[in-house]
TrEMBL record:
It is found in: Cell membrane. It holds the Pfam family HisKA. InterPro entries: HAMP_dom (IPR003660), HATPase_C_sf (IPR036890), HATPase_dom (IPR003594), His_kinase_dom (IPR005467), HisK_dim/P_dom (IPR003661), HisK_dim/P_sf (IPR036097), HssS/ArlS-like (IPR050398), Sig_transdc_His_kin-like_C (IPR004358). Residues 94-140 form the HAMP domain. This is histidine kinase. It comes from Marinilactibacillus piezotolerans. Its EC number is 2.7.13.3. The keyword Transcription regulation does not apply.
Length: 374
């Protein structure tokens, strides 16, 4: 810490004052002890120290004491002055720290307490810096959460408003009798019904997302064979894959991979990944699902050889309501919540999911612990 000129001057004055007080204490002690020695010579005369200082040098003034005794007195005086100035210096340090804290408390959270501090004060300053950094991070995280909530409301409003407007429009035509035949009524009702189903999909996905985002959501864990589960899902998508001339391949060096997890939630994850590969893997002919075991975790990779995704799409692909397509068209019947839900389910199981895409494969890689902590 760098002291101001005023603080240095105060320390200098305090050093001189302390030295003067010590000198006066020495003189007073010398005189008092001398009076006792003269009053009771039989009691103090046999003591070496008393004899050395008072009986031999009593006729001299204070500065006539022996060099050894003077050395001891100087050592004591220097120690007392150093302790006093050190204590005052610590007070100045605390005052500087308090001033810096007031400055930080006014909203200057990026400010750091200036100066180098040692000992316990240094530890306190380091702790303050950690606390301020943690507070800034928490505030930034809260800001992002608020921004995310605003985006969530905006996206939900957009995705619900579009089909809702169509429903109101077609039902309004029927309500006002603006139709020419029963077939036209049937057409309006059918369109409104399809739009209502789109809204239900969105609401269901939104409910599922908010549910799995809660860390307290219970898992209904059972023991199962992951390879058998994946193979069954591949069979379920076989007809859809054939209609799009896509082959689903399940590959694993293992015959069985027993796990303990919530199969209902994991089925949703893999359903989403496979359906996305079929829906968005443009120009692809193969969906390959690889299952392996590394130590105490299962590694599952769902990849397709379709058109590579842009880099920015891969970076944002797990965000809520994000779609790799530019428009938010309802033609693909997607809500943009599928991968966000998948990520939340995997994290709920204590695992991770990542995405990567190149000219050969677009791959979603999952790592899951084989057993859940109950």
């Amino acid at each position: 810490m760098k002291l101001t000129l005023r603080e240095r001057f105060r320390l200098l004055i305090e050093g001189f004052v302390t030295a003067g007080i010590i000198l006066l204490c020495y003189f007073a002690t010398y005189e008092i002890m001398g009076w006792f020695v003269e009053a009771f010579p039989s009691v103090f005369g046999n003591l070496w120290f008393i004899e050395e200082v008072f009986l031999q040098d009593r006729q001299q003034d204070l500065w006539g004491i022996t060099p050894f005794v003077l050395f001891l007195l100087v050592i004591v005086a220097v120690g007392a002055i150093y302790w006093r100035l050190k204590r005052r210096y610590r007070q100045y340090e605390l005052r500087h720290i308090i001033d810096e804290l007031h400055f930080i408390a006014q909203g200057n959270y990026t400010h750091k307490i200036r100066g180098k501090y040692s000992g316990d004060i240094g530890k306190v300053v380091d702790s303050i810096h950690v606390l301020v950094d943690s507070t800034v991070e928490a505030m930034e995280e809260e800001r992002k959460i608020e921004q995310s909530k605003d985006e969530l409301i905006t996206n939900v409003s957009h995705d619900i408003r579009t089909p809702l407007t169509s429903i109101i429009g077609y039902l309004g035509l029927i309500e006002e009798g603006r139709f020419r035949s029963t077939d036209e009524i049937q057409k309006y009702v059918h369109t409104a019904y399809q739009k209502a189903k789109q809204m239900k999909v969105l609401v269901d996905d939104l409910f599922e997302y908010t549910k799995v985002r809660q860390t307290t959501t219970p898992l209904q864990c059972v023991s199962f064979d992951m390879i058998q589960l994946i193979e069954q899902l591949a069979i379920d998508f076989e007809l859809e894959a054939q209609s799009k001339e896509v082959e689903i391949i399940v590959h694993s060096p293992l015959e069985r991979l027993m796990m303990i997890a919530d199969t209902e939630k994991l089925v949703r994850v893999f359903n989403n990944l496979i359906s996305n590969a079929l829906k968005y893997g443009k120009g692809g002919n193969i969906i390959k699902i690889e299952v392996d075991k590394v130590d105490s975790q299962a590694n599952i990779s769902v990849k397709n050889d379709g058109e590579a995704l842009p880099k920015e799409a891969v970076e944002q692909i797990f965000e809520r309501f994000y779609r790799a397509e530019i428009s938010r068209s309802q033609e693909t019947a997607g809500t943009g919540l599928g991968l966000a839900i998948a990520q939340s389910i995997i994290e709920l199981h204590g695992g991770t999911i990542t995405a990567k895409s190149d000219d050969d494969w677009t791959s979603f890689d999952i790592q899951l612990p084989l057993e859940q902590k109950m």
